[in-house]
Amino acid sequence: MKVKSKSNDKGMSLIVKTITRILVGLILIYGIYIILYGHISPGGGFAGGFIVALSYILFMLAFGKEEILKRIPQKMISIFESLGAIMFLVIALLGFTGGYFFSNWLPKGVPFKFLSAGTIPISNIALALLEVSLGLFGIFLVLVLLKFAPKKISQTDGEGE
Amino acid sequence: MMTYFLCLVLFCVGLYAIVRKRNIIKIIIGIVICEYAVNLFLVLFAYKINGRSPLYSPDQEITTMADPLPQALALTSIVIGLATTALLVGMAIRLYEKYGTFDITKINHLKG
Amino acid sequence: MKLIPLFVILPLAAAFLISLLGKQKRFFCDIASASITFILFVISLATIFNINSQILPMIYKVGGWLPPMGLPLVVDNLTAFMLLIVNFIAFIVSLYSINYMEKFTAKLKFYTLFLLMLGGMNGVLISGDIFNLYVFFELASIASYALVAYGNKAEELEAAFKYMAMGAVGSLFILLGIAFLYSNASTLNMADLSQVLSAQGTNKAVTFVGILFILGFGIKTAIVPFHAWLADAYPAAPAPISAMLAGVVTKSLGIYSIVRIFFNIFGVNPSFLNLLMFLGALSIIVGGLLALGQTDTKRMFAYSSISQVGYIILGLGIGTPLGILGALFHLFNHSMFKSLLFLNSGAIEYATGTRNLEKLGGLREKMPVTANTSLIASMAVSGIPPFNGFFSKLLIIFACIKSNHIGYGIWAIVGSVLTISYFMKFQKNAFFGPLPKELKDAKEVPFLMQASMIILSIVCLLGGMVMLPKISNYFTEPAKTVLVQGKDYSNLIFKVLNEK
Questions:
Q1: Is residue C362's pLDDT more than 50?
Q2: What percent of chain A has pLDDT over 90?
Q3: What's the sign of the alpha-carbon dihedral C36, C39, C45, C49?
Q4: What mean pLDDT is predicted for residues A13-23?
Q5: What is the pLDDT of residue C360?
Q6: A22 touches chain C (CB under 8 A)
């Protein structure tokens, strides 16, 4: 973080920025791959969400917090985090149609096929893309912004998995 | 057996840091070390001799599989640890803002 | 039966909805939290009637998975008893905080964290799987750490850090204990665990796990060697949260978990009971002596809370049916009067801006409702006859004497005398004597705060009625039976499962 370019640009040097520009997309896609294939291969919601969050953080470290806040405003983070939690809960509640809370009410499909395992891929997406990635990024952002905004309370919600 | 013992030693290292160190950041690091020792212990006792990673595959039957449940427990405890650590670090930054120090012997507005 | 998962769903859904929608309308979060907690209270009442009409525990298979595999939710009489207390206090507290929390800026976050904490506590009570219990335990704990630091002043952060560092170490001990237990028994379901452990016979690993659990849950219960965080954390939190922490958090996270794990899973043995009795008696005396010297009202109540929790632990440690009945009855009573006392101290702070007893005085004329309700609470906690505290303390002391632990009985009586003395000090300094000049403008608190205090004081006044057989057969007696029958718990659960 301390390495700054000699020009007045925010963030790190040109080399870092160029490489980051290429890498961020790849990391994001890899994270999304881990999430989408979470039900048939190692990985899943939490690991994939973590990788997605790391891509945001890398972008932020290279380009400075103003750039990322332009793309993902702080308000949006808290809204989408709550939405993710509610979406997960709604999927669990829809399980009542299958008889029980959290029951897997969608057709299970053939094992080892992409479209299988019922509700698990959907809840992976809700958990990863919204809850874990944005939650983790939000924590990082809040810790970075903390000393500049003394009135905000640092708050994390214990993710109940 | 040795690995389990070392795991316990790691836990005690963390406890030592929590009890003995005066710097808040070092205390937080102590808590994190303890947590990792417990996670390591969870993954360690899931292992069987000649165990493989607990994954089904379409073509072959796997009989020697490590116990997958403790690994899931470790993942959950990592998530919980993330939330705890984030809150602790946030609180440490706030404490630094109010007291101007990380030394717990100087953070003593409360008595008793 | 179908309603059991609602205890977790409703608070969590409300928490996230409030953080999503609460910004638009000013009163949305007040109404949402009050109505959700009221619905939960009604459901818990329905549960306690439902469970009494059928003798066996209710099991909810989450996701349709059968218990040794899945994560079942189990409601038996003890759980129903605890759920009623927790949700009742939560309802009262959320009524109270509508007015009280006006002076803080971020009311939204308060309600979000409050409901997360409530969801976590309900989850601890209804989960039938030991790791699930741990996850909900952590959810409630993390929300409570954030709530203690809520005011964001220097002292509050310091108290919260202290609480959090101790709490985090405690939860790591619990996790380590669960890991040992799983490596030993290869199951995490409570009923299954109980059967596997009794098939194994006496086991050194279980003793070690027991020590880890006493350390971990003891920190949350704040029994005496682990009480250091409590006296800082209670005064630092906002008054409604102090009421929640003192009234229900220590009980649902601490005492309930201890009794569930030790009485129903491990099975009690005399050395464990002796340890509980000793810790309880120590807590009574140390908490009482420390409370005598305090000038901050909330700090005094915090130490008093340690002392009263000591009675509950002592009663449980006696282990006879009478002792357990007394302990559960005292648990109910303590939730009521200690929450009321913290709400009173919040009202005093709201009206006068101080909690220091030396600066207060003569508030009886200015704040009649607060004065009278706190008088009722003080009399109840010190065990003056018509109020509820008297009966439960009497039961515990009787149980001590009947089981030939006369020494502990004398300690309990000494603790009761200590309680009277420091509550007399509180009453005299806060409500009687001359009114200081600075407090001339003190006014009675808004209506909703008064209403919540009045409801609790009525419960304190009539709480002794729980002793009547007609009520106690529905309320405390069945909960006692769960603990007395000990390891039969697992047989009952498997009986329910096999019937289906």
A1: yes
A2: 2
A3: negative
A4: 87
A5: 82
A6: no
pLDDT tens-digit readout, B71-90: 888 988 988 998 899 889 88
Residues A90-126: tens digit of each pLDDT: 888 887 777 777 777 777 777 777 777 777 778 888 8
- List, in order, residues 6 or more apart from C428 with CB less than 8 Å away: none
Subunits adjacent to chain B (3 or more Cβ pairs under 8 Å): A, C
Tokens for C416, please give them: 């009761």
Mean pLDDT over the full length of chain C: 87
The verdict on a CB contact (< 8 Å) between A42 and B87 is no
Residue range C93-101: mean pLDDT, rounded = 87
Q: Are the CB atoms for A131 and A49 separated by under 8 Å?
A: yes
pLDDT tens for C130-167 read 998 999 999 999 999 999 988 778 888 888 888 998 99
Of B35, B70, B109, the CB nearest to C158: B109
Write the CA distances from C145 to C115, C139, C164, integer angstroms.
14, 10, 6
* Nearest neighbour of B38 by CB, restricted to C154, C159, C175: C175
Give the pLDDT of residue A147: 61
A157 with B83: Cβ contact below 8 A: yes
- Residue in the block written with tokens 């929590």: B18
The pTM for the full model equals: 0.91
Length of chain A counted residue by residue: 161
What confidence tens digit (pLDDT) does each residue in A52-85 have?
888 888 888 888 877 778 887 878 887 888 888 8
Quick check: A161 contacting B, CB < 8 Å?
yes
Q: Cα separation of C422 and C340, whole Å? A: 17
Average of per-residue pLDDT across B106-112: 69
Q: What pLDDT, on the 0 to 100 scale, is given for residue A153?
A: 44
- Which of C172, C180, C209, C219 is the best residue to mutate to test the B interface, defined by the most B CB atoms within 10 Å of its own CB? C172
The minimal CB distance from B109 to the residues C155, C175, C290 is found for C155
Chosen for mutation from A155, A156, A159, A161 (greatest number of chain C CBs closer than 10 Å) is A155
Q: How far apart are CA A35 and CA C236, in angstroms?
A: 42
Q: Which residues of A touch B76 (CB under 8 A)?
A: 161
Instruction: Let me know if A97 is exposed, middle or buried by CB neighbors in 10 A (0-12, 13-18, 19+).
Output: exposed
Residue C232 touches chain B, beta carbons under 8 Å: yes
Answer yes or no: are the C-beta atoms of C244 and C93 closer than 8 Å.
yes
Query: Quick one: which of A160, A46, A86, A92 has its CA closest to C137?
Result: A160
* Token digits of residue C7: 């205890």
Window A:62-101, CB contacts with B under 8 Å: none
- Residue C454 identity: I
Helix (H) or strand (E) holding C83: helix C77-100
- Pull the structure tokens for residue A128: 């990863």
Does pLDDT of B103 surpass 80?
yes
Nearest residue to B44 via CA among B82, B80, B17, B11: B11
The answer to whether C1 contacts chain A (CB < 8 Å) is no
Write the pLDDT tens digit of every residue in C175-227. 999 988 888 888 888 888 888 888 887 778 888 888 999 999 999 888 888 88
| Chain A (135-154) residues lying within 8 Å, Cβ to Cβ, of chain B | 136, 139, 142-143, 146-147, 150, 154
**Quick check: B18 contacting C, CB < 8 Å?**
yes
Q: Please check whether residue C191 is in contact with residue C75, taking contact to mean a CB–CB distance below 8 angstroms.
A: no
Sequence-separated contacts (24+) of A62-68 with Cβ below 8 Å? A62/A11, A62/A12, A62/A16, A62/A17, A62/A20, A63/A10, A63/A11, A63/A12, A63/A17, A63/A20, A64/A10, A64/A11, A65/A141, A65/A144, A65/A145, A66/A10, A67/A10, A67/A11
- pLDDT at residue A146, rounded to an integer: 67
Q: Please give the full DSSP string across C227-266, using - where no structure is assigned.
A: -TTHHHHHHHS-HHHHHHIIIIIIIIIIIHHHHIIIIIII
